[in-house]
Design goal:
220 residues, alpha/beta, Rossmann fold, 9-stranded mixed β-sheet, 9 helices, 40% helix, binds S-adenosylmethionine
Length: 220
């Protein structure tokens, strides 16, 4: 991830701004609701259950949706400041014992192999322009999840992706064609369960891929 963006997430002001980002206007609230509905569908398709990892959790935006499919959610993020925001936002769930928190990198998770039924990695790898950086995340998600990995990416095959490419628009995000994303994931024993779910084909690049965790590289 771009160090400037990461340092924003790792500041108190940046983390608290991110927590409010999806509430700032009715448009944002609507697109947030749609996004959470797609995450919900992805977890439904995955048949997610039991213990689920939410990494990076950011300010805990996805956690209540994930919890609808889980007995317990571990919220992990590299930013202490984001974890603080998530702790505040999810305090009642934490008090009920449904959620715990951990400062950790998605590329080097402190959990044992197969700790979770499902690992969710939402809105991280599109910030990673470097294939090696993404590979470390795929490897860790595949290692800590026993059954499923749900991971979002910027889908370069969408209308918006094609349009931006045609116009030579400079993109801060690192977009991938689904076949390339699947090939990167396959190197870690991740097999796609159907086509990625798209946030909304026209305006967004966000897509969510659901993987079955197989036996292969990284899980020997
Ligand atoms: C765009 S936010 C997404 C947060 C959350 N998934 C959501 O959709 O609201 C990106 C998050 O990734 C975290 N992050 C960046 N690099 C990370 C890494 N290597 N491991 C774990 N978290 C990371 C940042 O601190 C930030 O909270």
């Amino acid at each position: 991830m771009d160090p400037k963006l990461l340092s924003r997430y790792q500041s108190s002001t940046g983390a608290s701004a991110y927590r409010r980002k999806y509430e700032r206007s009715w448009m944002r609230r609507l697109s947030n609701r749609r996004e959470l509905a797609i995450v919900d569908r992805a977890l439904e398709r995955a048949g997610a259950t039991g213990r689920i990892l939410d990494c990076p959790c950011g300010a805990g935006r996805l956690t209540p949706t994930i919890l609808q499919h889980a007995e317990h959610v571990v919220c992990a993020d590299i930013s202490e400041q984001m974890i603080e925001q998530a702790r505040e936002a999810l305090a009642p769930l934490a008090l009920a014992g449904a959620v715990t928190f951990q400062v950790a990198s998605a590329a080097d998770l402190p959990m044992e192999d197969d700790t979770f039924d499902t690992a969710v990695c939402h809105r991280l790898i599109h910030h990673m322009a470097d294939r090696e950086e993404r590979a470390a995340v795929f490897a860790e998600m595949a290692r800590v999840a026993s059954r499923r990995v749900v991971i979002s990416f910027s889908d370069d095959s969408t209308w918006k992706g094609r349009s931006q490419r045609r116009r030579g628009v400079h993109r801060r995000r690192s977009a991938l064609m689904p076949a390339d994303m699947f090939a990167e994931a396959a190197a870690h024993g991740l097999r796609p369960m159907g086509a990625p779910l798209r946030l909304n084909g026209f305006h967004s690049l966000v897509a969510i891929a659901i993987f079955e965790v197989g036996v292969g590289v990284g899980r020997a």
